[in-house]
Amino acid sequence: LAEMRLVSAWVCALRPLFMVPLPSFYRLYYLYNHWIMRTATYFFIFLNLSLAVFEEPAVYPLPFLVTSLVEVLCLLVFFGRLVHFAKVTLRNVFWKDTKNICIMVAILLSLTDLTICGVLRIYNVRSIRWSRIVRPIFLINFAESRQIRRAFRSIRNTLPEITYVFLLFMFSLLMFSLMALKLFGERNLQTAEGMPYFKNYLEIVFDLYVLVTAANSPDVMMPAFDFSSWYALFFIAFVIVNTYIFMSLFLAVVYNNYKKHLKNEIRKLAYMKHRKMIEAFNLLKEEEGAQFVVREARWKQLVKLVAPDTSNSHRELLLRISDDEQKGFIDKKSFVQLADLLNIQVITLKIRSHPLGQWMPRVYKSAASRFLRSMVRHRGFVWTYDIIILINAIFIALDEETPYISYAEWVFLALYIAEILLKVYTYEPRAFFGKNQFWNWFDTLIIFAALTATILNTTLKSTTKYNSQQILDIVFILRVLRLIRIVDSVQRFRVIMNTLINIVPTMLTFGGLTLVVYCIFAIIGMELFYGKIQFFPANSNAPHALECGNPALKDSLFARGKYCKNNFNNFASSFIVLMELTVVNQWHDILCGGSVTVQAAKLYFIAFHIVMVIIIVNIFVSFILEAFFVEYSLEKSEVETAIEQKIQELGMGVQEDELQDEQLLDNMESAEHDLEGEGETKPQSKGLVFKIASKRYRTVDALLQRMFEAEIPLEDEGPSFEEILNLSPATAVPSNLTSESAA
């Protein structure tokens, strides 16, 4: 009831515009946003995409009826999800949203194609499942895939500038190709395979395009270079102009435009966030003297509603920040900052005494125990084990069969186990194994897994003649993984690790983007090249086995390189081929196998190279570049500073620079560790303390917002913060703000 009262005024005002009565709206809204519903949506999206693995041409063939029923089930789920979304969305907003129209069209096309294909199969007529190419639309256009749509918008907005650079690049390529035809066409040169060298203009264009990627260098140059060393100057000039200048220019243009359009999106999102907060304030406000405010009780209900996982202590901290003078209400300016406050991750640190201090107080608090714990807390302890890890790395590289090397492994395992036991003895165990203590969990799991595998392997070798190479491989891998721990001991390494952790969600976004592109090109590739190449075992006597089942590949680089498994005969093989094309190396040899039927098929591979390598990979590189810039220069925001000041005022704060041994226990949720000095123990009382979470736990959305907000000039931000505070709900939204941005 408390939650319903918070938004009842808003819903009542807009009730005529919704498609359902008021009570149903609440139930449908919370159900739509429930994590189970979101997870189920993603499950059926990926189930729909994975049908290509079981449909002809299939990796694991299933009857057409089975795959058809599964696809119909997925389409019904998508339609139900869309109807559900329509029930909790304004009618005019729903029908104006392009992504909803795309989903409906994709469902209709899929059902039409499925029906046609089913009818034709009754009469044994093979048909092309052309609707499979629209399946990625469901991954892109559902509301849960906002980040993927943002990436596609970045590509769409960047395309005009890329097009101009690409046209200049093609002009340069065509000019150099024409020069190559005139220079080498009449020399009667031959390639290493005995083929005419640079006789056909289109072949020259393609060979030089491949040279831009360096995949056929220096092979393409050698016939001319053998004829005259001076001809090397032509290829050197070509590589400088097209490989180094134009490819770098592509990255510069992609990065500049990506950053510009992303900054514009973040500006829109920041403006709309403030606008929505003011609308919420206007719905919840009450009159207090000469101003409107939100009462403390209602504010608490709101925070509990929008952030149900927030602890009571955290909510009280945010209330003390918003109601600094403890008047019992929150004014408009403080209320608008609530969204920023909730975006700052604050860790609640529970002060606990060590269990041994309660069970054996005399032993744990003795002079010898205090000395031992001070040694473990000292930085010298960390440095000592860093040296031990480096020495262990040397032993790992040495011959395992040497007895002393084998015995040394037990010594290193004993030292690592002693380290973990000493840390658990020194630091409170529940804090040591806190949910954010990645390196502590990593060390413990790696050491005990290595110990278990080593004992198991030694036992098997001593009791039987059995020698498991798999167990040995696991032991070797675990030994090498222990070296990763040293990364967090170096400040610059830690910055890189922070950046990598920060961009993991974005890597998932670009992974989804790559999945969309791969699915589309894989389906097209299977329709174009299915059956053109066959793989045969090495001892096969089948006709044309050496030519991958296609006589046209006789004496080709593709056949001689034994690339026969790189084909488009099923969905999995197609993905592997596309991955190889993304890496670029030897991609022209793979292309040779795909274009055995018609030379125009080369356009397929060139199109994939342009879309995936030149555009998408460069956008991904652009984000990584900006993420590193932010990581090296990011300072605390105003809101973070306000939170830290209030924490310190309340006497419940832990500053990051006070953290003892941060490399060892980064952002440890242990007040004992946070509040103790380097060599002595300060008495602690039980209670709560707070600290701002490390930058390594920020989400990609927060990173994007912080990425540009400091760079946006004040005069270019649209309405200032004070002007936004005075906006009324009736104020028109600027026409350049789209509904997608508002969402």
Automatic annotation (TrEMBL):
Highest taxon of the lineage: Eukaryota
Key word Membrane present: yes
GO molecular-function terms, A-Z: monoatomic ion channel activity
Membrane-traversing stretches: 35-54, 60-80, 101-123, 162-181, 201-218, 230-258, 380-398, 404-426, 438-456, 499-524, 603-629
Cross-referenced InterPro entries: Ion_trans_dom, Volt_channel_dom_sf
Keyword match RNA-binding: no
Principal cellular location given in the protein's record: membrane
Membrane topology designation: Multi-pass membrane protein
Protein name (database record): Ion transport domain-containing protein
Organism, scientific name: Falco tinnunculus (Common kestrel)
